[in-house]
Amino acid sequence: MRAIQLEQPKSFRLIDIPEPTDPGPGEAIVRVHRIGICGTDISGYLGKMPFYSYPRIPGHELGVEVVAIGDGVTNVAVGDTCSVEPYINNPNSFASQRGRPNCCEDLQVLGVHTDGGMRKLFTLPARKLHKASSLSMEQLALVETLAIGCHAVYRSAPQPGENVLVIGAGPIGLSVIEFVKLSGANLIVMDMVESRLQFCRETMGVTHTVTFVGDGSEEKTLRELTGGNLPTIVIDATGNAKSMSNALNYVGHTGKLVFVGITTDNVTFPHPLMHRREMTLLASRNALPDDFDRIIDLIQTGKIDTQPWITHRVGFDDLPGQFPSYTKPETGVIKAIVAVE
Ligand SMILES: NC(=O)c1ccc[n+]([C@@H]2O[C@H](COP(=O)([O-])OP(=O)(O)OC[C@H]3O[C@@H](n4cnc5c(N)ncnc54)[C@H](O)[C@@H]3O)[C@@H](O)[C@H]2O)c1
Ligand SMILES: [Zn+2]
Predict the structure, then answer these.
(1) Which ligand 1 atom lies nearest to the CA of residue 43?
(2) How many CB atoms lie within 10 A of CB 94?
(3) CB proximity list for 11: less than 8 A, separation 6 or greater
(4) Which ligand is nearest the CA of 145, by number?
(5) What CATH number labels 2-131+309-339?
(6) For a substitution probing ligand 1, which of 43, 145, 174, 191 has the most ligand atoms within 8 Å of its CB?
(7) What does the angle CA 196 – CA 199 – CA 200 come to, to the nearest 5 degrees?
(8) 145 close to ligand 1 (CB < 6 Angstrom)
(9) Within the chain, which residues score under 50 in pLDDT?
(10) Minimum-distance ligand to the CA of 143?
(11) Model confidence, pTM
(12) Is 126 strand, coil or helix?
């Protein structure tokens, strides 16, 4: 069967690999129908992802169908359609035992640390499948992206009416926005790219946007929008170390700052800024198993509209040719979805 392999940065190739057979105890074989492309895939392609190793079959945002199950599998049956939680954890690890498999010490993310779903069939632990018969395969492939935002918002626990600032309106910021909206908090979105803010206003129903220009005027605007107190939750989804450092300026007294964006650079800040306000700094990595089931329910019940998310569609064989265009901002990709026929 065919698979798409990232042989090395900027070099995809179509390869032929054997079909999986005979799932072991606790395992399932799935047929991949749809694959979402995200910033992680783009960073892997560009050679900018520190945890990525090559050659690698990418693909971690997946809509799949179960075609075989091994002994002891009870959560799914053959024919079920599912979203995949691509964070393969060691259930015995310290973090997993503490109910935090998303940041397991031995974590293997499909399509990043281990081969992912850009192939017709593959085997995975069945416990990583989240069944959802009423979602389309495209919707199933969107669940993981939404889960990142869901977890970041869960980490900060906004209350209705609380002022929340989301910095960075890329796909991860947009997924954060979905869950801030659901929390009933007052949402403000900041980005330096006007077209991204326009998308938030026109398509995501965001009322308050602030353009980051870097002249200090942003803090004044944020004070005006928050009755002088600044937001008590700031979620930085830029992955930009300067923005992450600067974000401390926007957190009000007693507030929380969540880093959902990822950088390999040092993030530095004047400590008094944090101390005076008795700020809480939180990381948000991946998502929890329950997030997947919650999102499936929210899509099923129409509380999350997946319509605006998919901006590009591509066939499996055409992906290597199309992929370079997804790395260019002018292509305007929010989410490209690969169809595996
Ligand atoms: N927490 C996780 O588990 C997880 C999972 C996936 C991705 N990520 C990370 O989330 C981050 C965002 O991913 P994405 O795909 O949305 O990226 P993206 O590059 O598409 O979006 C980032 C946005 O931030 C904006 N931005 C950059 N610097 C800014 C600044 N100084 N002020 C205001 N806006 C600024 C950009 O204009 C852009 O719109 C990345 O670092 C990615 O690695 C985290
Ligand atoms: Zn992703």
Answers:
(1) 43
(2) 12
(3) none
(4) 2
(5) 3.90.180.10
(6) 191
(7) 90
(8) no
(9) none
(10) 2
(11) 0.97
(12) helix
Residue bearing tokens 């005006």: 224
Q: Could you report the per-residue pLDDT of 93-120, keeping only the tens digit for each?
A: 999 999 999 999 999 999 999 999 999 9
Strands (E), the chain: 2-8, 11-16, 27-37, 61-69, 81-84, 87-88, 108-109, 121-125, 129-131, 163-167, 186-191, 208-211, 233-236, 256-259, 280-283, 310-315, 335-339
Q: Please tell me the distance between residue 33's alpha carbon and the centre of ligand 2 in angstroms.
A: 16
Question: Residue 38 C-alpha to ligand 2 middle, in angstroms?
Answer: 5
Is 87:61 a contact under the CB 8 Å cutoff? no
The alpha carbon torsion through 47, 311, 114, 22 (nearest 10 deg) reads -150
Match 């060691």 to its residue by tokens.
90
DSSP symbols for 155-211: HH-PPTT-EEEEE--SHHHHHHHHHHHHHTPEEEEEES-HHHHHHHHHHS---EEEE
Q: How many CB atoms sit inside 10 A of residue 157's CB?
A: 12
Asked if 173 and 189 touch (Cβ cutoff 8 Å), the reply is yes
Could you tell me if residue 236 is left (phi over 0), alpha (psi between -120 and 50 degrees) or otherwise beta? Answer: beta
pLDDT in the model for residue 293:
97
For the record, the structure tokens of 125 come out as 């632990």
Rounded CA separation 337/335 (Å): 6
* Measured distance CA(69)–CA(319) in Å, rounded: 30
pLDDT of residue 121: 98
Cα separation, 282 vs 287, in Å, equals: 14
Question: pLDDT value at position 49?
Answer: 81
Domain ranges of the chain: 2-131+309-339, 149-283
Select from 167, 222, 238, 243 the residue to mutate for testing ligand 1; criterion: most ligand atoms less than 8 Å from CB. Answer: 238
pLDDT of residue 52: 87
Residue 238 beta carbon below 6 angstroms from any ligand 1 atom: yes
Q: What is the pLDDT of residues 150-188, one digit of tens each?
A: 999 999 999 999 999 999 999 999 999 999 999 999 999
> What CATH number does domain 149-283 carry, 2.40.40.20, 3.20.20.150, 3.20.20.300, 3.40.50.720?
3.40.50.720
CB contact burial 268-279 (16+ within 10 A = b; e otherwise) = ebeeeeeeebeb
